[in-house]
Amino acid sequence: MSTRRTWSTADIPDRSGTTAVVTGANSGLGLHTAEELARRGAHVVLAVRDTDRGVAAAAGIRARVPTAALTVQRLDLASPASVRAGAEELRHRFSHIDLLVNNAGVMWADRARTPAGHELQFATNHLGHFALTGLLLDSLRAAPRGRVVTISSYLHRLGRADFPDLDGGRRYNRYRAYNQSKLANLMFAFELHRRLVESGAHLISLAAHPGLAATGLGRHLPAPVRGLGSVFAPLLLQSAATGMLPGLRAATDPGARGGEYYGPLGLTETRGAPGVVRPGRAACDPEAWRRLWERSEHLTGVRHPL
């Protein structure tokens, strides 16, 4: 475990010769993560649902980092067909993948079902990333020091894994559904770590959360709440550039270890320098990890080749 209490983008080691895939890299945390990895020499794949926005994001990165090596890949995490097609293209394009950052997400959305029939937040935030990781696992294991970093949220502490109703079919609450999906992100990262260790793989799995960061995720809030939030945002929120630091540290710090969880080290974990933090109690049940993994395999049809 890396014990340094201070860490910034200046501490990112050279990433030349590596390939990184960042989901949701056209805005917010994903955009800043992609830019910093490219600045350090990585070939970064911007895996995005809207390729026009992805191309615009890539142009912005190149304007700030002229040497950036970037690829835009269409990937709609809510669509199993898109996830499979995107993963297949990535496997054919790259001999190995050194880093996968499972970052993209949707927050506090109205009740909606994906084309596959799953609740939108659970499908996008968890199931899509579960499937993508499994489909890219051989490419990740082919890297000498591969990593998977899954972005969770401080709000996972308010989540509960409702196994009889993971898909929100019986009842729906936008906040409860989001919290559950972020709890699922963290449980998946921990169970992936456990299974990788058991298989003897060199690939490692970590998780991170950004604290309270100013991104576009709150766009699905009701207008009155969104307006009230904009008043207090400057007092409560970190910038997206600061919020990305825990994920970047998990992705690049040579001292980071599999199974660790990174977040802001401030008193409430909403702000502060990035470092190892403790997950909530609900995220620490290995039996729940296993149950979620098996349900995710069933819902996605993807089995991780471990």
TrEMBL record:
Report the Gene3D superfamilies cross-referenced here. NAD(P)-binding Rossmann-like Domain (3.40.50.720)
One GO term in the molecular function aspect is: oxidoreductase activity
Cite the entry's keywords alphabetically: Oxidoreductase, Plasmid
Mind telling me which InterPro entries this protein's record contains? NAD(P)-bd_dom_sf (IPR036291), SDR_fam (IPR002347)
Q: Which family does it belong to?
A: Belongs to the short-chain dehydrogenases/reductases (SDR) family.
Checking PANTHER family in the record gives: PHOSPHATIDYLINOSITOL-GLYCAN BIOSYNTHESIS CLASS F PROTEIN, PHOSPHATIDYLINOSITOL-GLYCAN BIOSYNTHESIS CLASS F PROTEIN-RELATED
Name it. Answer: SDR family NAD(P)-dependent oxidoreductase
State the species of origin. Answer: Streptomyces finlayi
